[in-house]
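Moderator note: this is an archived Q&A kept for reference. The question asked for a predicted structure of one protein chain; the sequence and the answer are reproduced below.
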Amino acid sequence: MDPIQGRKKMEKRGTLFVISAPSGAGKTTLIGKVLKRFPQLSYSISHTTRKPRKGEVHGRDYFFIDEKEFETLIDQDQWIEWAQVHGNFYGTSKAFVTQKLAAGENILLDIDVQGARQIMNSELGLVSIFILPPSIEALLQRLENRGTDSKTVILQRMDNARLEMDQQSAYDHVIVNDEIDQAVADLCSILENEMRS
């Protein structure tokens, strides 16, 4: 056996999972349920330049940093993915992800299609999962039932959802979140099969 291949086989590298979904598909609920079942799965917390919302905690919901620091980290190539959304920056720390993976830990990233594409185009190996609503009509109903957005914002979210759903073929796995327990079971099955430790 080639000594380099043998050494690579002995290395215990973690698995990087990337989950994306249109707004209202139930991704956050799914991830919350799955994380309780997989204590060995690290959840990567994003950095953002937006102000914390009521109840949000630095280091739990996001790492809140200022724009100057974020842009410095862009210049230093410290993000594995980043985007500017509605005037605020969002990004995932390259150091956090690479260190965890090198230590053999499995990581889950909850990021949008734009961020997922950046990681797919990087040197990092990943398992990508796209969460779909049962239908575009069901998605609209879920967004309306939330009662948190204006009609204009809902229409914008629906336009974005259609564009994001067009990207599903780029992902390794697609789960339809029609019935929550089944979707959780499907996601757990993917994680179990793909996890390295």
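Archived answer notes: Residues 3-194 form a domain with the Rossmann fold fold (CATH 3.40.50.300).
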